[in-house]
Design brief:
single chain; alpha+beta; Nucleoside Triphosphate Pyrophosphohydrolase; four-stranded mixed sheet; three-stranded antiparallel sheet; 3 helices; hydrolase; NUDIX_hydrolase_CS; hydrolase activity; NUDIX_hydrolase-like_dom_sf; GDP-mannose pyrophosphatase
């Protein structure tokens, strides 16, 4: 059905091998038979945690992001280690970054946040039954943790104060879940 859209890999080479990211350069055959080059970032994937308190507020982070040279408001998130179970990663990241654990976990969805230039996928998890504790930040990781009403998050998204794509999407999912419009399996 989609054969008229499919590109076929002819050759593949690693263009860059960094500590965190790898860049791939592939030669592909287009549907019309012509050849071209595709460059893309290889990423192991990450988890995003949507920590929801019983009062409807959410747990958030403020973190400086070097590429854009500013502090962003985000949900807790982190890279999936090689061979690591996605849910185990979500539990680890929530504890490390915020000090919280959760008694209830549900997978929300998978998103592909940069399909034009990366194979990265983000696994979103809803975390409830939050219990505070001591956080265990990675070496070189600096962030603030705070609690905010979901209504504030929606306002911040609308006003452009929250622009991180995983946080925007997570906030819209939470709005639907809390309102009872979308049920999780």
């Amino acid at each position: 059905m989609d054969s008229h859209l499919i590109e076929t890999r002819i050759a593949s080479a690693e263009a860059y091998d960094g500590d965190f990211l790898k860049v791939q350069r592939d030669t592909v055959q287009l549907p019309d038979g012509k050849a071209t080059t595709r460059e893309y970032i290889k990423h192991p994937g990450a988890v995003v945690i949507l920590p929801l308190f019983e009062d409807g507020s959410v747990l958030l982070e403020r973190q400086y992001r070097y590429p854009l040279e500013r502090v962003f408001i985000e949900y807790p998130a982190g890279k999936i280690d090689s061979g690591e179970d996605h849910l185990d990663c979500a539990k680890r990241e929530l504890l490390e970054e915020t000090g919280y654990t959760a008694t209830e976990w549900q997978h929300v969805c998978t998103i592909h946040n940069a399909i034009a230039y990366s194979d990265e996928h983000l696994e979103l998890y809803l975390a409830r039954g939050l219990v505070g504790g001591e956080r265990k930040l990675d070496d070189g990781e600096f962030l603030d943790v705070f609690k905010a009403p979901l209504a504030d998050m929606l306002s911040w998204v609308r006003e452009g104060k929250v622009t991180d794509v995983k946080t925007v999407i997570g906030t819209f999912w939470l709005e639907k879940i809390v309102a009872g419009d979308w049920k999780l399996p």
